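Write out the 3D structure for:
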Amino acid sequence: MSGVSVAGIILAGIIIVTGIIGIWAIKPNKKRDVSIFYGKKYAHRGLHEANIPENSLPAFERVRKSGYGVELDIQMTKDGKLVVFHDNSLERMCGFEGHICNLTYEELGKLTLGDTDEKIPLFSTVLETLQDVDLICEIKSNNGIKNDNLCAKVYAELRKYRGNYCIESFSPFLVEWFRKNHPEIIRGQLSYNMLKETKQTVLINFYCTHLLINVISKPDFIAYQYTDINMLGYKICKKLYHPLCIAWAPKGAEAIAIAEKEFDTVIFEL
């Protein structure tokens, strides 16, 4: 047998083994009953518009009256308060150069959302406002990709909530905390095409894009950007394992209709 042939066999073997490991790594959690989340629409950061900021109490009040579910974002302040806010920086929404994790809740109270008088709300207040609205909670990794204290605080609030809820995160380690500590809670792995991102290493972006991080989080559902359905990891995961697939975040009727054809559930914006 020639040296070239041996090298070819070895290469083929490496490719096959790598493929098998990849298919194993993207496998989600074993099938559980997630039927309460199928076929529904969740308002992305509440029902917001020009004079009603995203992730504000009025945006959540509108959701409660609409019949939709809601998706929101959770972070933790410097003094350990859970608040609902999306961005890592306060600049876009509050015109302030700073970060939630570096300010106390009292300090945040001096800021307003956009050109309104609305404040960044506490997570507990948002839950009281929503009452029993179906809820998807994204746990942001701005407090760190691993943060047991954050996860424990989120759980403590959610366990008192009257409505249906689940958690999701881009960080597989935050999702993993719920898998290990409260596996009864439905959990999801967020992702999208990160291959052109520069915030993390190329390898990490590759793993996240193709859902190879599922081996850590073992999610019950995949929440994927609706425009990135051709990513190989997503396609393989959906084809082989048939998890609940949730789209984020089409905006407008046309985009929502496109997302509904591909996904089981949609997190949308009007």
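The domain at 3-269 is CATH 3.20.20.190 (TIM Barrel).
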